[in-house]
Backbone:
């Protein structure tokens, strides 16, 4: 009986472990997912993250929480024009957005 219980527990652990491993380090927002562990380079990670948030906005333009991420990532990738565009979009929809504090000056607007 003891070895049977150990065997069952071991099997359950193995099943849970193998199912969880692909999910560790994954990002899922509004149904779009990618694995962070596949990205080695910081700039490559930022580009992937930027594309991810652009997909979110394409699906849900009123998902205002995505815009600060897009602004930050566009700015850090040297795409100031796109950062300004996203800033203008969100500031028109939510002029009191606290997550945008300091971006107006940083973007020279």
Residues:
């Amino acid at each position: 009986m003891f070895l049977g219980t150990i065997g069952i527990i071991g099997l359950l652990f193995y099943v849970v472990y193998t199912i969880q491993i692909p999910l560790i380090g994954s990002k899922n927002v509004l149904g779009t997912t990618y694995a962070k562990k596949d990205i080695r380079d910081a700039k490559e990670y930022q580009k992937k993250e930027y594309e991810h948030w652009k997909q979110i906005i394409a699906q849900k333009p009123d998902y205002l929480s995505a815009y600060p991420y897009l602004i930050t990532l566009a700015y850090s990738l040297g795409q100031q024009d796109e950062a300004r565009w996203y800033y203008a979009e969100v500031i028109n929809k939510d002029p009191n957005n606290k997550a945008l504090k300091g971006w107006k000056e940083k973007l020279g607007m």
In short: The domain at 39-106 is CATH 1.25.40 (Serine Threonine Protein Phosphatase 5, Tetratricopeptide repeat). The first strand starts at residue 26 and ends at 29. The radius of gyration is 20 Å.
